[in-house]
């Protein structure tokens, strides 16, 4: 009998929604966003960096004002949505 080949399967990751992490109009800084994303969605520090960038580009969060010299604050943007994160490839056996 031949061995079954293992095929990689790409799992759909969590849907990160900034509107669920922060109240409407609430100010936050980049570090706080990344920390909340790690706590709520179990992300690694590298993934939380990428999620922040994706949310900023998608308009889910927007820059608001400088709260301290060199520290930009953000708020949830006009777009309500989510950013999906692709999980690492897992190996699944064919039966």
Describe what you observe in this structure.
- This protein is an alpha+beta fold.
- It has a single domain (16-86), classed as Orthogonal Bundle (Arc Repressor Mutant, subunit A).
- Helix content is 32%, strand content 35%.
- The chain contains three helices and seven strands; from the N terminus they run ββαβααββββ.
- It has helices at 18-21, 30-41, 45-58; strands at residues 6-9, 12-16, 28-29, 61-68, 71-76, 83-86, 90-93.
- It has a three-stranded antiparallel beta sheet with strand order 3-5-4. Strands 1-7 form a two-stranded antiparallel ribbon.
- Helix 2 packs across helix 3 (45-58).
- The radius of gyration is 18 Å and the shape is elongated.
- The mean pLDDT is 82.
Based on the model shown, name its key terms:
two-stranded antiparallel sheet; 32% helix; three-stranded antiparallel sheet; Arc Repressor Mutant, subunit A; elongated; 3 helices; 95 residues; alpha+beta; 7 strands
Strand content: 25-35%
Order of helices and strands: EEHEHHEEEE
**How would a textbook summarize the main sheet?**
3 strands, antiparallel
- What does the overall shape look like? elongated
On the 0 to 100 scale, the average pLDDT is 82
Strands of the biggest beta sheet: in what spatial order?
Answer: 3-5-4
CATH topology: Arc Repressor Mutant, subunit A
Q: Tell me the helix content.
A: 25-40%
Number of separate structural domains: 1
**Distance N to C terminus:** 13 Å
CATH class: Mainly Alpha
Evaluate the radius of gyration.
18 Å
CATH architecture: Orthogonal Bundle
- Given the structure, what is the number of helices? 3
